[in-house]
Amino acid sequence: MTTAALQTVLTVPERFQGPKGIANGGWLAGTVAETLGGNGSAVEVTLHAPTPVETELCLEHVANTASLRHGDTLLAEAIPVAEELPAPAFVRFADAARAEAGFAGWRGHAFPDCFVCGLREPGDGLRVFPGPVEGTDLVAAGWRVPFTVAEEDGVPASIVTAALDCVTGWAHFAPGESALLGRLTVQIHRSVYPGGAYSVVGRATGREGRKLFGESAIYDGDGTLVAAARATWITPRA
C-alpha cells in the first residue's frame, strides 16, 4: 500500500527574496517545514538549488517528507528529526539592539535586498542586523516584529524561520562576504507576536572547506527560548 501525495502550487512573492530574484533560504525552509505540521518538533530542510521568486512551484507532502520542485528540479526537501536543538546563550534585548551598530553589512552587503537582513524599509523587510556582542563569541540583533508580516492567526512559521536564518551567516561574514544557505534545521517552541521585541542571537560553530556552520535562537524579553536553528552555509567557489 502506498501513501498518496498531497500536492499544492507555491509561488514565492518577490518580497521574500534573499539574493535578488531568489527566495530567502530561511523563509523557504520555514514554508516547506510547515507542511509537515510543526508541533514543536525539529525539522531539517535541505536546499538543493536556488528557488526563483514569482514562479509556480510544486510543493509535495507524502508521509513525513515534504519536497519542493520546479519542473524536474528538486529545490528543497524537509524531514522531521528527533532531537532538541541547542541554542546560543540569551542576550538581553537592549544589548542585542546595541550590537547592531557593529553589523558588518553596514560596511558592505552582498544582498542588500534580502528580506531578513537587507537594508529594506521598516515594515517591508525584517531588518535583522546582527553585530558582535562585546565579550562573547555571539552576534545579536534586536528584532522588532513588524505588523506587516502577521496573518490572521499570528506570525507564521516562515517568518520565524527567516529570522533565524541570516544571523548564522553573519556570525561568519566580514563586510561584503556572502554564502548561500544549504541546510537549516529549526525548532519552534512558542509563538512570535507582531509588535513584539525579541533578541535574535547567533554564533559560528565551525567551518569545513566551503561549508560554514552556525546556530541561532530567538528569545523573548525574559530570556524564554522561542525558537532555535542550526545552519549550514555554502560559500562561493574560489
Report the end-to-end length measured between terminal Cα atoms: 48 Å
Rg over C-alpha atoms, rounded to the nearest angstrom: 17 Å
Task: Specify the structural class.
Answer: mainly beta
**Nearest-integer average pLDDT:** 95
If helices are DSSP runs of H or I spanning 4 or more residues, what is the number of helices? Answer: 3
Structure report:
The chain has 238 residues and is mostly beta strands. It folds into two domains: 6-81, Hotdog Thioesterase (Thiol Ester Dehydrase, Chain A, Roll), CATH 3.10.129.10; 93-234, Hotdog Thioesterase (Thiol Ester Dehydrase, Chain A), CATH 3.10.129.10. The chain is built from three helices and eleven strands, in the order E-H-E-E-E-E-H-E-E-H-E-E-E-E. The protein has helices at residues 25-34, 93-99, 157-170; strands at 6-11, 42-47, 56-62, 65-70, 73-81, 131-132, 138-144, 180-188, 197-208, 211-219, 225-234. An eleven-stranded antiparallel sheet has the order 1-3-4-5-2-8-11-10-9-7-6. Helix 1 packs antiparallel against helix 3 (157-170). The longest helix is centred in the C-terminal third of the chain and has 14 residues, at 157-170. It starts with 5 loop residues before the first strand and ends with a strand.
What is this entry, summarized?
By secondary structure, the protein is mainly beta.
Throw out a few tags for this protein.
single chain; 238 residues; mainly beta; Thiol Ester Dehydrase, Chain A; 2 domains; eleven-stranded antiparallel beta sheet; 3 helices; 11 strands; 13% helix; globular
